[in-house]
Amino acid sequence: MTVRKRWSAALVTGATDGIGRAVAHRLAGMVDTLLVHGRGARSVMDLAAALAPAHPGTTIIPLKADLCSMAEIHYMINRVCTAVDQLDIVVNNAGTAGIYPRTVTRDGNEATLQVNYLAPVMITAGLFDLLCLAEHGRVVNVTCDSYRNAKLRWHDLSLEQRYHPMTAYAQSKLAVVLHTQGLADRLSASSCDAVCVNPGNADTKLHRRAFGWHAESVTGAVDNVLYAITAPLDGTGFYFNRKELTTPAVELFRPHVQRHLDRVTAGLLSTRLPWLERVHVHLPRSTAS
């Protein structure tokens, strides 16, 4: 018997380890085509080889890209665009703990900022047209509550002064949340939407490197990401704290701050952000928990 899949196509970045790997395994049975990204060719090919026999009705497409390289991200975007003609879900899960010592990519950006923030924005921008072709496209940006401890250093986003890996990590996650808020506002009258999810503490390599201690099994975190992928939205929030839909109570969540972040981001990426052409609609604010 042929099982009707829930979606046509989905992309999961950072799918070769931790939360991303478990999310890929869960999504594989729900989509016709699953695109899985990893930094290393061997690891992403091994993942595809593990997924394919378990889900014979799903086409698994491995994608190799080092997110520290804009050129490799461009190549991955082009591969996705030639592989599918629409995209229902993009899960921007790939990330890195704050890197020590401070590292600058070949593109001139502090590496934590590029991997955790600039890369997912670039991926979303490059695949935006495919998302708009889906009946209901959704961008899910995986973040962390450590953003609450951060401020954006507008004149020093690459943290040339007073660098600390935890500062770099928290700032990158704050940028993700601010970006997602603006993206959700822009998409509120469209067939697409955007959410953030804080999946909670999970015992992954990234968590141990960032925080230095073991945490809970990834199972609960994966459930929370899957919930953010599938849950209906009521127009009152964009941020899932585990499974609770909230709007973070941060003073920086103001339209002029988001517009400034968009301008800075477009400049760093040297690209247009296609959602900026849409009418800006403010989402109602709810109280954060």
TrEMBL record:
GO molecular function, one term: oxidoreductase activity
Native source organism of the sequence: Kutzneria albida DSM 43870
Protein name: Short-chain dehydrogenase/reductase SDR
Keywords in alphabetical order: Oxidoreductase
UniProt record similarity statement: Belongs to the short-chain dehydrogenases/reductases (SDR) family.
SUPFAM superfamilies, per database record: NAD(P)-binding Rossmann-fold domains
Keyword Cytoplasm listed: no
Pfam family, one: adh_short
Domain of life from the UniProt record: Bacteria
Keyword Oxidoreductase: yes
